[in-house]
Amino acid sequence: MNISLKEIFDDANELDKKSLDFLLKAIAKNNQTGFDYLEFKQALIRLNKMGVDEDTAIKSAFATASTVGLTKEKLLESAGYYLNILKDEFKQFNTALEKQMESKVHSREKQKSSLESKITALDKKIKNLTEERKDLESKLSSIDQQADVARKKIKETSDRFEKTLKAITVRIEGDVDQFDSELP
């Protein structure tokens, strides 16, 4: 591809780089052979760079692409194919996100509950274990902070990923709508 996937989906350079790289690798890995949605988008970008208005660019690119067998149905089908790849990546991302939540947040919350129980037991049993109680309270505070930091980090990653996913999805869906309404 002469025009990068990044240029197709993040021409304004506004999306989260890590999420974008992840999603674009999935798209590139699953790139269909032949002239499909991605090559059509590249052709549109080339025509737009030459100053051709978008309506004319779409019709011109489609006329050229039809000479190598691209039909409106194949174009829309291939755009749907890439949307499905993004949906699969989103499912995998959510699975990984849940594992991160379990290992970095929920497990610490379970630790917190366990430590609180120990504190209560120590208060009831022995007054002289004040030092051990202070140590456990310090661990609780640390666990809360760690869980909060992990939660925030995971949330930020999720937000960036979802923003990037949405931007790419909206771009493809907009193209599908436009192609569907403007192509014969």
Structural write-up:
Keywords: Coiled coil. With about 180 residues, this protein is mainly alpha-helical. The chain has one domain. It is about 80% helix and about 0% strand. The mean pLDDT is about 90.
Describe the SSE topology:
Blueprint: H1 5-9, H2 17-29, H3 37-49, H4 54-66, H5 72-125, H6 130-182
Give structural attributes.
mainly alpha, coiled coil, 184 residues, 6 helices, 82% helix
Number of domains: 1
H/E element string?
A: HHHHHH
Contiguous runs where pLDDT drops below 50 for at least 5 residues:
none
- Structural category is mainly alpha
Shape: rod-shaped
Question: If you average the pLDDT, what whole number results?
Answer: 89
Percent range of helical residues: over 70%
Integer-rounded radius of gyration: 26 Å
DSSP, total strands: 0
| Termini Cα gap | 26 Å
| Helical stretch tally | 6
Strand content: under 5%
* Biggest sheet descriptor: none
Coiled coil: 112-153
Keywords: Coiled coil
Summarize the entry for a quick read.
This protein has 184 residues and is mainly alpha-helical. It contains six helices and no strands.
